[in-house]
Amino acid sequence: xxxxxxxxxxxxxxxxxxxxxxxxxxxxxxxxxxxxxxxxxxxxxxxxxxxxxxxxxxxxxxxxxxxxxxxxxxxxxxxxxxxxxxxxxxxxxxxxxxxxxxxxxxxxxxxxxxxxxxxxxxxxxxxxxxxxxxxxxxxxxxxxxxxxxxxxxxxxxxxxxxxxxxxxxxxxxxxxxxxxxxxxxxxxxxxxxxxxxxxxxxxxxxxxxxxxxxxxxxxxxxxxxxxxxxxxxxxxxxxxxxxxxxxxxxxxxxxxxxxxxxxxxxxxxxxxxxxxxxxxxxxxxxxxxxxxxxxxxxxxxxxxxxxxxxxxxxxxxxxxxxxxxxxxxxxxxxxxxxxxxxxxxxxxxxxxxxxxxxxxxxxxxxxxxxxxxxxxxxxxxxxxxxxxxxxxxxxxxxxxxxxxxxxxxxxxxxxxxxxxxxxxxxxxxxxxxxxxxxxxxxxxxxxxxxxxxxxxxxxxxxxxxxxxxxxxxxxxxxxxxxxxxxxxxxxxxxxxxxxxxxxxxxxxxxxxxxxxxxxxxxxxxxxxxxxxxxxxxxxxxxxxxxxxxxxxxxxxxxxxxxxxxxxxxxxxxxxxxxxxxxxxxxxxxxxxx
Length: 593
What we know:
- By secondary structure, the protein is α/β, with parallel strands linked by helices.
- The protein folds into four domains: 114 residues, no CATH class; 98 residues, CATH 2.40.50.140; 189 residues, P-loop containing nucleotide triphosphate hydrolases (Rossmann fold, 3-Layer(aba) Sandwich); 140 residues, P-loop containing nucleotide triphosphate hydrolases (Rossmann fold).
- Helices cover 34% and strands 20% of the residues.
- The strands form four sheets. A seven-stranded mixed sheet has the order 6-7-4-3-2-5-8, with no helix packed on it.
């Protein structure tokens, strides 16, 4: 059978108890097919020796070491055991957090096989708290002398439990898998069979085998995606529709009220959208453009075209912060034109939500702006004509469809600030027409982006201080909310106290992250916009939905821990006014690692 037809529940597997089933469901794994498609995020080569002296976060040690002695150190939960070992290349410390019982298993003089990412701490000591070991005199176990797959975990799952579950699934079901690629394509590209690809992605004999399996499965995924995109395109083209009404009067009024003219690319995008509405099938258009290029204004003007004709539009954003910003901007621009704008998120409830949903159903709201709450079952429209999806990559196909299904084949306009190469756009969005805004509004200057190696932060802080003294504002972004015992990464909470207390005591700062209450987030952002705060210390929660023209500095520390799309979005939080703006990417490891 095909892999997708393995719908048997994971509870069928031996050794998967109720807690294991629950933990797997937290990862979205409820069937054998989903389990076998839960591919490793990386591999650890436990075959090739890596001495302690060459170990790092990216190259874990794989070595034989001798236990020298035991020490104790204090941590948050009391005293912890430290086992000092050496392998001829270096002396290192095994930090046994909550595992003091290992003292009896690791007596001085014992020789062990040892694996784990050993790194130097701020005092120069080579150490690791995430190691595995076994007696060097016994035959290698499951975690040594092998290519070890590392998976994303959830719930109470351990890597060992997940590997065992996948191994059981492979033994029971993989032998009967059918081919999913046409024979001609598989032979032409020298791809593996379906069975071999699934086996080798999970249980490779070498890293080369794992890469070969990965290439086969990537191609297979793209093949299926192209089939789905092609079917979607044919479905849209097959939905015959009459020309939709479009009114220019509200457009004209907004243009006259704007203190600037639209750019050539904005005008071109509007022409594309209007042309789509004259075609005999629903619009499915992707509008891409740099952060701050004016995509939202184009979307509002597209909404005015259908609103002026007596119909409704919905604008969906991925976060409440971004949705609220759009709602505030829409109120300023559109309400003076007598356009009725509403705001809806999951936090809107009770009588307020009932009144809003009734107004939508009766056509008393022209434009509703919100989050995922827009496709809730109680949200209905009298005549939904246009669906606008901002940061469309944050939503799944089913989510976008759930909103579009609330109208009778409404036109769909998707927005993205993530640069998409033409070949990728044709591959991933082949069912969508693409418009691009390449020019920034008049007066905007390109953002200067600088790399800084960790250890040179003082120079960055000095530059930011000069910007703050000039009346500008800054962001500092970190990958973690709070300190982690398992990581040396800087965290937002710790750095907030460091920055406010030691680096910038003369300036006003605030901390913002996903655990902070929404009302407090709004208050902090309002204070930042108003100039009552000089800088924000945050996580990637400020990636979208923050528009402060006076912010000229974005500092991202441990930039290597953020994806390119996130870095692009974070950089776009500055440069939104006419002042020169700067983005500093502070990295702990070389960017090419």
